Amino acid sequence: MKKTFIKTKNVKRFVSLMDELQKLPPNIPKLALVYGDQGLGKSQTIQWWADKNNFVYVRATQGMTVKWLLSEIAEELGEEPYWHAQDNFEVIEKSLRLNPKVIVVDEIDYLIEKHTVETLRDLHDRTACPIVLVGMGAADKKLARYPHLVDRLYKTLKFEQFNQDDITDILQQITDLEFTPDAITYLATRTNQFRQLVKLINKIEKLSETNKIQKIDEYTLKGLLNERTSIKALQKVG
After folding, report:
1. Residue 194, SS3?
2. Average pLDDT of the segment spanning 41-62
3. 205 CB contacts (<8 Å, ≥6 apart)?
4. Confidence of residue 48 (pLDDT cuts 50, 70, 90)
5. Measuring CA to CA, how many Å separate 64 from each of 88, 181, 197?
6. What is the pTM of this model?
7. In order of start, what are the domains of the chain with their CATH numbers?
8. CB atoms within 10 A of CB 16
9. 222 or 153, greater pLDDT
């Protein structure tokens, strides 16, 4: 498997969103929501973008309080956290006014449950820095209980599950194996998530190498993915 970051449709849309946020005029709200089911590559995309850009990244956890959240942001900014939440807020505000940065907060579902997420709205209002909220598939519905925050959302971006065209594009970027159209159609019935697809491709590559196979059609693929019948299927192909 090629060790390369796969620029899926979701990745390209995320990059466009980040570019937009940083180019918005001062009077436009710069809050954004990125959400979607697990396994679609949200975390990998953020990490890839982080390696290329200087921004603040915080991952929320269960039970995270306002003080805890602000302490994490302060540390990411290179500041020494204070004991009181208000002091941390002021330190963060001062730092961001002097050196504006994008703030990305992952796993915001935890912050929604604890009502901590409104602190991010306040931070946005005081600094005008872009803040990107990253959550799970129902994050948009959960945020609906905070109308003042939702009103400030510039844009929401949902990471979509992959269709056959997406999978074709991913295969071309990640493996040297040749998949026939019927094999890709079948593969699309097995998974529509990035994480699962990568695991499947890794398995297919190992079995293909063992059995000296370079081109994979639907019949061969079914054999490779079904351990009980793979030897029989491959013998027929041979």
Report:
1. helix
2. 87
3. 1, 175, 177
4. confident
5. 15, 47, 33
6. 0.81
7. 9-158 (3.40.50.300), 164-237 (no CATH)
8. 12
9. 153
